[in-house]
Specification:
Blueprint lengths: L7 H8 L35 E5 L7 E4 L8 E6 L19 E6 L15 E5 L14 E9 L4 E8 L6 E5 L18 E6 L12 E8 L16 E10 L5 E9 L7 E3 L7 E8 L5 E10 L4 E4 L3 E3 L4 E5 L10 E10 L15 E6 L2 E2 L9 E2 L6 E9 L3 E8 L13 E9 L6 E6 L3 E2 L9 E11 L3 E9 L6 E6 L5 E5 L4 E4 L2 E3 L1 E4 L14 E5 L6 E18 L4 E16 L6 E9 L2 E9 L1
Parallel strand pairs: 13-20
Antiparallel strand pairs: 1-11, 2-5, 3-4, 4-11, 5-10, 6-9, 6-11, 7-8, 7-10, 12-14, 14-18, 15-16, 15-17, 15-19, 19-20, 21-34, 22-30, 23-29, 23-31, 24-28, 24-34, 25-26, 25-27, 25-29, 30-33, 31-32, 35-36, 36-37, 36-38, 38-39
């Protein structure tokens, strides 16, 4: 089933996870305190057009700065040739060089941290810019060079026709968040262009330009973490006339029913859709516009229906026939945008190639290229990905990759994997199975670790499941590889027992290899406990001969619930009177003893 292009609401409805809507606020532990100044991205700066107005910050008097009462050097906007912030002492590598504008807000790495709370920092052109007097019309774009990175920031570009009422014309919320979970800083410099033709009238009044910074989480404004910023550097601001022919790709999607996979079991192949959202930022209408794909140099060729896109309009192009991988192997997809006219700025409608593979057993959402990790300080957590199942298949294991090295997963950390289904009515995650606890050894790090489930799960077609890896305390760091659309990769914070989504894709994969867990299935005592965490009742599922004595202990070794005899099958234990925390279920039979941990919430 095909979804609309990258629409979070559509993902919520189809994947039935409407109960999990909130993004996770980044904490200081998520911070990466070093810049990646060598990162380069393709330039999006328009190379055509006439510059009507420009400013390179050589004269600070051209701008009015409002730093919300803050006066120290590391707070608010500053214009000069020296970086004031904590993150990158080198500033922006702009075209003009020399002075530039820099936004900072204290130093979160200091002890104590110094960021100011409840602030809005603005930098505004001192005088209005008369576009009409300069020979322009509404067919103009704001261009500038920027550098920095996002954390919990709201970085906005605004315009006004009276100097009082402001309209936001752009922000940086499309940029990835740089944290320990992954993400990247902006290219240095990143060339940004904002088309004003559909915002201002044909004969526009003079306008003011403003750069504004505040938190992206005003509802949490008392939390110092939401006021952390790496900084935002601005230089070489211009108003430039728009080109004649200029199609740009503003969004893109590939995948099946909203999820894309970089490794697919042959049993789970399904039609893959390709879409692109294309904006016509030029003066002329564009005709015969198509999205084209070419798989493995001619193995499969497809195109969208031709479209006419008028100036300042946006169209979603969908390849008419989805591609279904026919066999095990590697697949490379070339995507292009074509039209009758020659595009004046071809760099902003280029789409990266896609590479994925089809194999026997592995189902992977991550792209395999490590980029950061997910952790949760001293608190327990679970993290993983949604997977759609297109044919009934039994799952016996989950693959994970744990970060190694000096700042990686601590040897001795106890971890587990779990599988949840999704309640189609409530959107809740429903426990299906988990592994025995695994004590992490050095050989388990930076490798494709296979963890067997206690009980294999018969995954049903046309259902969505969540596979996770987790721990109940500190020490675990899970590798991220690639990015996820919102509401498709999830994080359970055990401190507040809340599910959040994250945009870094955790290295958590389904493994359908039928030989996984054969040895484990021969154990004399087979047991599982669920739901986990629980607030009232803990179900204990046993496959034993005779009767088992089941008791509950706390982590100090004190018996909390006395032993009770339970035969094979499933029995319920009332844990509602227990305090919140971690406990151990002790299961004893004539042939041995096994234990299972659970969390009382």
């Amino acid at each position: 089933m095909k979804k609309n292009l990258l629409t979070a609401s559509a993902l919520l409805l189809t994947l039935a996870v409407s109960a999990q809507k909130q993004p996770r606020l980044l904490t200081f532990q998520d911070l990466l305190a070093k810049p990646a100044t060598t990162l380069e991205k393709p330039s999006t700066e328009k190379t055509l057009g006439v510059t009507l107005w420009s400013d390179n910050f050589s004269n600070p008097a051209n701008w009015v700065i409002d730093n919300n009462g803050q006066t120290a050097a590391q707070f608010g906007w500053d214009i000069g040739a020296t970086a004031e912030g904590w993150w990158d002492p080198n500033g922006i590598n702009s075209t003009s060089g020399g002075s530039y504008a820099e936004l900072s807000n204290g130093d979160p790495t200091a002890s104590p941290a110094t960021q100011a709370l409840n602030v809005v920092y603005t930098m505004t052109t001192a005088s209005p810019i008369n576009i009409t007097a300069l020979g322009g019309t509404n067919q103009v774009s704001i261009q500038f060079q920027q550098y920095g990175a996002r954390f919990n920031d709201l970085q906005e570009v605004q315009i006004s026709t009276n100097g009082t009422t402001w309209t936001t014309v752009s922000d940086n919320l499309n940029e990835s968040v740089l944290s320990s979970a992954g993400g990247t800083p902006y290219a240095n410099p990143n060339n940004k262009s904002i088309n004003l033709a559909n915002i201002i009238p044909a004969s526009p009044s003079p306008i003011w330009i403003r750069f504004s910074w505040t938190t992206n989480y005003p509802a949490s404004a008392t939390n110092p973490n939401v006021w952390i910023t790496y900084g935002w550097y601005i230089d070489d601001v211009k108003l430039v006339t728009n080109p004649t022919n200029d199609l740009s790709v503003t969004d893109k999607y590939w995948g099946t029913a909203g999820l894309n996979y970089y490794q697919i079991p042959i049993t789970q192949t399904a039609p893959i859709d390709f879409e692109a959202e294309v904006f016509n930022g030029g003066i002329n209408s564009q005709t015969n516009v198509k999205l084209n794909i070419n798989v493995n140099t001619g193995q499969f060729v497809g195109s969208s229906a031709p479209a006419t896109i008028t100036s300042l309009d946006t169209t979603i192009l969908t390849v008419s026939t989805p591609f279904t991988p026919p066999a095990i192997g590697s697949y490379s997809v070339l995507q292009t945008i074509t039209a009758d006219s020659t595009d004046d700025v071809p760099t902003n409608n280029a789409i990266s190639n896609i590479a994925f593979s089809v194999g026997n057993y592995i189902y992977a959402r991550d792209n395999g290229t490590a980029a950061g990790s997910t952790s949760n300080g001293t608190d327990g957590f679970e993290v993983g990905n949604l997977f759609d199942i297109w044919a009934d298949q039994t799952l016996k294991g989950i693959n994970v990759r744990l970060l190694g090295g000096a700042s990686g997963t601590a040897v001795g950390t106890e971890i587990f994997v779990k599988l949840y289904s999704i309640d189609a009515t409530t959107g809740d995650f429903v426990f299906e199975s988990e592994s025995d606890p695994l004590i992490v050894g050095a050989t388990n790090l930076n490798t494709n670790l296979v963890v067997a489930l206690n009980t294999p799960v018969n995954m049903l077609m046309n259902n969505t499941y969540l596979a996770v890896v987790g721990c109940y305390a500190a020490g675990l760091k899970v590798v991220n590889a690639g990015t996820s659309e919102v509401q498709t990769s999830f994080f359970l914070d055990m401190l507040d027992n809340t599910w959040y989504y994250q945009t870094g894709t955790p290295y958590v994969r389904l493994n359908f290899d039928p030989v996984i867990g054969i040895n484990e299935l021969n154990n004399d005592i087979q047991a599982s406990v669920y739901p986990n965490p629980t607030s009232t009742t803990l179900n204990v599922s046993l496959n034993v001969t005779g009767t088992a004595l089941v008791s509950v202990w706390d982590l100090t070794g004190k018996e909390i619930i006395a032993p009770q005899g339970i035969a094979a099958g499933t029995a319920a234990i009332d844990v509602s009177k227990l305090s919140a925390g971690m406990y151990v279920v002790n299961i004893a039979t004539e042939t041995g003893i096994t234990t299972k941990k659970f969390m009382k919430k």
